[in-house]
Amino acid sequence: MYVCICRQITDSQIRDLCRDGASNMTDLRTKLGVASECGKCGKLAQSIVKEFHKSASFINAA
């Protein structure tokens, strides 16, 4: 699903970047340009990052 229409960035791209170590919006903005145009995607992008790291911590705990 597209998260950032301005930059054509998908949720999969954000999750891939999280797998590579991105952990906050600064990382996303620097590497993908998320929320650097109109900014409407910022909240959704942030929630994807939080969700990814929350689920990753459960996987690592097992």
UniProtKB/TrEMBL annotation:
InterPro entries xrefs: BFD-associated_ferredoxin (IPR052371), BFD-like_2Fe2S-bd_dom (IPR007419), BFD-like_2Fe2S-bd_dom_sf (IPR041854)
Cofactor requirement: [2Fe-2S] cluster
Signal peptide segment: none
UniProt keywords, alphabetically: 2Fe-2S, Electron transport, Iron, Iron-sulfur, Metal-binding, Transport
Domain spans labelled BFD-like [2Fe-2S]-binding: 2-51
Superkingdom to which the source organism belongs: Bacteria
GO molecular function terms listed in the Swiss-Prot or TrEMBL record: 2 iron, 2 sulfur cluster binding; metal ion binding
Gene3D superfamilies given in the database record: BFD-like [2Fe-2S]-binding domain (1.10.10.1100)
Pfam families per record: Fer2_BFD
Family note: Belongs to the Bfd family.
Name by which UniProt lists this protein: Bacterioferritin-associated ferredoxin
